[in-house]
Amino acid sequence: MSTSADSAHADRIFLNGLIRPGGARRPGPDPTALAVRGVRIMACGSDEDIRALAGDRTTVVDLQGRRVVPGLIDGHMHAVRAGATWASELRWTDLPDLATALSLIRTAADTARPGEWIRVVGGWHPSQFAEAREPDRAELDAVAPDHPVYVQALYEVAILNSSALRAAGIDATTPDPPGGRLERDPATGQLTGRVFGMGAFNRILDAIPPVAPDQERRSTAAMFADLHALGLTGIVDAGGFAMPPERYAPLFALWRDGSLSMRMRLFLSAADRGKEYEQLAEWMRHTPPGFGDPMLRFAGIGEVVHYDCHDFEGLEQFAISDAASDELYRISHRAAEHGWSMNIHAVLDESIDRILTCWESVDALLPLRDLRFSLSHADRISPRNLRRLSALGGGIVLDDHQVFKADLSEQAWGHGSMTAAPPLGDMAAAGVPLAAGTDATRASSHNPWLSLWWLISGHSVDGVARRAERHRMSRERALECYTAGSAWLTFEETDRGHLAPGAHADFAVLSEDYFTVPEERIPAIRSELTVVGGEVVHDSHACSQPTK
């Protein structure tokens, strides 16, 4: 039983660090210590100040001079989808060359069960490799001749080995699936193993045996453990294609039994083309806005609000039709009527223009300013549309898919277009609230530090710096987007994204000082100790062992 004296003491204190609390930067040196009481920050200050809050039962952790930042919140990630298969997939994020990547497949094949699929599903791009190319069918055959292998590079191309083609029931007579293409050697007509388009990707992925529900739950927990090791304490899940209610079962299972360690905020998408209004209305009919608790909460509708309003990566001709715009208006009106936020995918300014016209029509009847509608990506947004978005009280969720796609995007949008993609300087000038994330795990890497590096440097992984200086961010501003900015999306900027007294005790102790490490080292930063709600969820044991 606690005594009145205990109630004045911290449960944990963290000393001898460099604390960046977030929020408005105060002059002078950063605090060196912080105290946690229950699930919230009790105080942040000098070692001397914080030591005074220790009692007989207080746990003391020596940070050994390490940098502490508010826990990172990925403002746009497809974590629910990724979690179900996380433990059964390989990841090529951050690998330097094709030889290393192929060695991971060889190692997996050595321990895999007979006939078990080996897969790498997005999160990497050939431009990150020294060889600047993806593997071919023969190379995959050589490292895993007896196992089906599927390797997908973002949403650009997938490569199958011979076993995978057989397991998927694909041969030279198989027609191209709708929305996809099976590449054939022009001389022989035989399959090369390369496939393109969502139709082809889904044709293969559907042939892979599904994971059992209990495995999905364990896999999702394993994903959260890996993300905590990067300093993530929260995720805004963007929904996405083919996300009916049953896809959330593993996450809800973790939540129900108290095993959920990541703060999850869910945007809910339409699962089927042509049924968008009915399916989103069904979510809203049975779920009040903001339903949940501090660990899991429904955030809004999106990012797939209407399939015919989704301009994918903006690299092909696209236009939102009048019919799709009318449906978007109906859905937006329904969301506003019921007090729901909305997030919608939009890359091209032409798409954004029609979306904002729709939102302005709703706003004339039901003001949107307090609902925090937002756009994801907005790579090509114009100053005019930034002003319109600002007038609606809307925000933008930035992501780093251009860290991989910059060269292809420039080919599609014209020489010099990437100097302002996205136009971060214009966004700042318009005063639009900004969140930041990755769009992982297929369209981009899940590494938040790669995303932060991209915001700061303007570089892509091919080594080219394309974005102009005025469209780059300071380290402080980029971190703010990745913490308080992402908390803004879900009306939580008071409680999350900073380390002021009373905030949730969510923070990360970093392997290197984000604010002083050479810029090229930022993607390699990891968390030595990650805390969510005052509880340690990741510990590399680099800090001194806590003492009472």
Written overview of the protein:
The protein is of the alpha/beta class and 548 residues long. The protein is built from 16 helices and 22 strands. It has an 8-stranded parallel β-sheet with strand order 7-13-14-15-16-17-18-19. A 5-stranded mixed β-sheet has the order 2-6-20-21-22, with no helix packed on it.
Topology:
Layout: E1 12-15, E2 18-19, E3 33-37, E4 40-45, H1 47-51, E5 59-62, E6 67-70, E7 72-77, H2 79-85, H3 98-111, E8 118-121, H4 137-143, E9 149-153, E10 157-160, H5 162-167, E11 181-184, E12 191-196, H6 198-205, H7 213-228, E13 232-237, H8 249-256, E14 263-268, H9 276-286, E15 296-301, H10 322-337, E16 341-346, H11 349-363, E17 374-377, H12 383-391, E18 395-398, H13 402-413, H14 424-430, E19 434-436, H15 448-457, H16 475-488, E20 507-510, E21 527-532, E22 535-539
Parallel strand pairs: 1-5, 2-6, 7-13, 8-9, 13-14, 14-15, 15-16, 16-17, 17-18, 18-19
Antiparallel strand pairs: 1-3, 3-4, 6-20, 9-10, 10-12, 11-12, 20-21, 21-22
Helix pairs in contact: 2-7, 7-8, 9-10, 10-11, 15-16
